[in-house]
Amino acid sequence: MANHFENFKKYAFRLELLQEYNVDGEKESIKEFLKTGKVSEDKDWTNLIKSAISRGAFMERVHVIILPISKYLKYEIEAYKANIEAGEKVSFMLKEEFDKINTKINHDFWLFDDKIVLKMNYDLSGKFKGFEEIKNASEFVKLKDITLLKSKPISELK
User: Fold this and answer.
1) Other residues' Cβ atoms within 10 Å of the Cβ of residue 64
2) 134-148, pLDDT tens digit by residue?
């Protein structure tokens, strides 16, 4: 998957549908956030964003959210601040609104340059199990376009 991030030309788009991700490397950071309200910057990720921008590409994501916001999502929203500062555009859409525009795609994905789709596979606990490349990107491009049109900046989430 790393080569996709190094090789995209125009942009990378991420759709996030889960309300909680079970990431081993985040456990301590989440505990710290729940105590202090602060999240340490993921330098590897923000450097990846900056690298994309330096070559004239950009990254954006939409997180589909169910209210009330979980503790995990509060953590992620705080973590997004460093991504945004690095140049990533981060938006959200409420699940009810997302369901009105989407009936086909029910999983997270990355879309690179409207050509390459990586379907992200997670177990029921939100633990990443791997990805699969999907050859036909047309439905994903349509969903990306409408989702970006209807989403709001994460900074507007209260």
Assistant:
1) 21
2) 989 999 999 999 999
75-107 core/surface letters (b: 16 or more CB in 10 A; e: else): bbbebbebbeebbbbbbbbbeebbeeebeebee
- For residue 26, the enclosing domain spans 2-156
pLDDT tens digits, residue range 99-142? 999 888 999 999 999 999 999 999 999 999 999 999 899 999 99
Supply the CATH number for residue 132's domain. Answer: 3.30.870.10
State both tokens at 55: 């070559």
Closest CA to 142 of 102, 98, 97: 102
